[in-house]
Specification:
transferase; 12 helices; two-stranded antiparallel sheet; methionine biosynthesis
């Protein structure tokens, strides 16, 4: 069974920045049937521009016949605070009768996202989560949540993520935001504001999501005489337009800033101390060609999470490998769970 729902937090949400959102809605989807003992819950934390429909954006890993089959698992995925897929964000009113805040929407951190999802967990009556899983920004959320609530999660699976967003990652995000801010329509505060800038930002982001090898395999020219309009050029334009058709520039700015805010050690005595609080059984997956979240960041997680397991995938797809390489991920999960129940 599939259910799309919206949960309204019972009280205003005080953000880490000090701002307060008077009303917060969290859009979420559940798929499958919860067992009477509640032991089959898988909670998915989604990445930057995804939504609560995990079966649509993680096919091959979630869905009928996949490792996480709704016939066996009760799957929960909630849209993050600040996004544009049903949860409270820059284009939605933050109080009854209020106008959207657009570029004035307050700073949201990964911790704020987790606070909202923790309230949803209580609303759903889920006392234990068998597996918490996420990649990239989703992995940042999953780690933060496992630090905040170590007794709740039995298994934690994080892919292509880190304990603190790197200067390299912040720089990529800032370059994208500069592209959006350079679009004068962004400052007009309309639903379509900043679209050209958003498309340029996506083209920048794609360079960090893929790899030199991936472009060589998919975008190489077959006509040696060509002097313009290269396949790689049209591919960048296509990907920009594709995101522009389903996302908005204001949410993109909010969520990229949230990613920048990620720092498990903030106020906790540093990253190693924070990671040592995790009590779940943990699988950390790195991708050999990931230039945005390189494997050294995942190895740091493993060094400081008690008993964590590490696996590295060889992939030509770069960071996007966590969404694409579902067959090797499935194999790694099968090994992980067999070891867990041995």
């Amino acid at each position: 069974m599939t259910h799309d729902e919206v949960f309204t937090l019972p009280a205003p949400l005080s953000l880490e920045s000090g701002a307060v959102l008077p009303q917060v809605r969290v859009a979420y989807r559940t798929v499958g049937t919860l067992r009477p003992d509640g032991a089959n819950v898988v909670w998915v934390c989604h990445a930057l521009t995804a939504n609560a429909d995990v079966l649509s954006w993680w096919p091959g890993l979630f869905g009928p016949g996949c490792h996480f089959d709704p016939a066996d698992w009760f799957i929960v995925c909630a849209n993050v605070l600040g996004s544009c897929y049903g949860s409270t964000g820059p284009l939605t009113p933050v109080a009854a009768g209020a106008a959207p805040l657009y570029q004035e929407f307050p700073l949201v951190t990964v911790r704020d996202m987790v606070v909202a999802h923790e309230q949803l967990r209580h609303h759903l009556g889920l006392h234990r989560i068998h597996t918490l899983i996420g990649g990239s920004l989703g992995g940042q959320q999953a780690l933060e949540w496992a630090v905040q609530r170590p007794a709740v999660f039995e298994h934690l699976v994080v892919l292509a993520t880190n304990a603190q967003h790197s200067p390299w990652g912040v720089a990529f995000n800032e370059a994208q935001r500069l592209a959006i801010f350079a679009d004068p329509t962004y400052h007009a505060a309309t639903p379509q504001g900043g679209q050209a800038g958003l498309q340029a930002a996506r083209a920048v982001a794609l360079l960090s999501y893929r790899s030199y090898a991936a472009y060589g395999l998919s975008q190489a020219e077959t006509d040696d005489a060509k002097l313009t309009d290269y396949r790689a050029s049209s591919y960048q334009r296509y990907q920009g337009a594709k995101l522009g058709a389903r996302f908005d520039a204001y949410s993109y700015v909010v969520l990229s800033r949230a990613m920048d805010s990620h720092h498990l050690g903030r106020g906790r005595g540093g990253v190693p101390a924070a990671l040592s609080q995790i009590r779940a059984r943990v699988l950390v997956i790195g991708i050999s060609s990931d230039v945005l979240f390189p494997p050294e960041e995942q190895l740091l997680l493993v060094r400081h999470i008690p008993g964590a397991h590490y696996a590295e995938m060889a992939s030509d797809y770069g960071h996007d490998g966590f969404l694409i390489e579902t067959a090797p991920i499935t194999h790694l999960l099968e090994r992980f769970y067999v070891q867990s129940f041995a």
